[in-house]
Design goal:
The chain is mainly α. It is built from nine helices and three strands, in the order αααααααβαββα. The chain has a three-stranded antiparallel beta sheet with strand order 1-2-3. A hairpin with a 2-residue loop joins β2 and β3. α4 runs antiparallel to α5 and α6 runs antiparallel to α7. The protein starts with a helix and ends with a helix.
Length: 194
Amino acid sequence: RRADFLKQAESEGFMGAEAKVRAAELVEMVRNKDISSDAAEFAGEATYNHKPHGALGYASEVVGKWSEQYKALKLFVPFTRIVENVTNRGLNYTPYGYKRAFMGYSHGEVLTPEARRLMITRATMGTVGLVGLGALQAAGLIQIHGNGPSDREKRRQLQNAGWRPYSIQIGDKYISYVYTPTGLGLSVLGNMTD
């Protein structure tokens, strides 16, 4: 098929490297636009740079509008978008993910059947994981920690003794959950017990 595009480029008067560049342009013009938009959407989600959805998306828009009036806020806008997208992703791994799966996002985005199944899978896995870890904590086998005590001095003393915030403690070992998909739900559990 690429050879056909090269022949077309040559029939348009292009030769050599220019013909190859023109053939690549022709391929891009014919390529399914849905595939290209899906790839761009996936790239945005994978790097947390896509437009946030729901209430957090609305908050991101407000901060963006404020940054137009107050130029100093422009420094923080990219970071608020990332924080909001990370939080949105974390919500997918909680029971709130079921609400999203069955109702869609509040900005009117309709989930495809495949996206809905994926949302239900994430919500199920995250919720089962949270319940399981909560049961292990209730049985005294692990301890889920959040931010720790609000008293800075007590918190510093705990950290000097080996304690780590936002972690799961198994015996004397602390495993951070900050960068896991279930980090949001675990931090809620940890902050309730701290």
